[in-house]
Amino acid sequence: MKKRGSKKSVSKIKEKKMSCCHSSSCMGGGYFLAFIGAVVYYIQNATSFGNGVLGVLKAIVWPAILIYKLLGFLYGL
Q1: Tens digits of per-residue pLDDT, 32-67?
Q2: Has residue 41 been placed in a domain?
Q3: Does 2 map to a domain?
Q4: Overall pTM surpassing 0.90 (yes/no)
Q5: Is residue 44 in some structural domain?
Q6: Helix/strand/coil (H/E/C) assignment for every residue in 13-42
Q7: Contact indicator for 35, 52 with CB cutoff of 8 Å
Q8: CA 64/CA 70 separation, integer angstroms
Q9: What is the rounded distance in angstroms from the CA atom of residue 33 to the CA atom of residue 36?
Q10: What whole-number distance in Å separates Cα of residue 64 and Cα of residue 42?
Q11: Distance between CA 63 and CA 29 in Å, rounded?
């Protein structure tokens, strides 16, 4: 008969908790929410259809530009 709080079961629970935080789904969800927020912002401020399309394209790439500028600021690039 196994004990309920055995070391093996506790280590499996800790392993599950740690693996959840290191998966790409956590980052994907955050990126998706930021993307939706950026699309809403750019479309609300668009004055024409072309500006709206450009805003959607900007919303796709703005995280990469943000990281590039942030690293350039931090490391003096």
Answers
A1: 888 898 899 999 999 999 999 999 999 998 888 887
A2: yes
A3: no
A4: no
A5: yes
A6: HHHHHHHHHCCHHHHHHHHHHHHHHHHHHH
A7: no
A8: 10
A9: 5
A10: 17
A11: 14
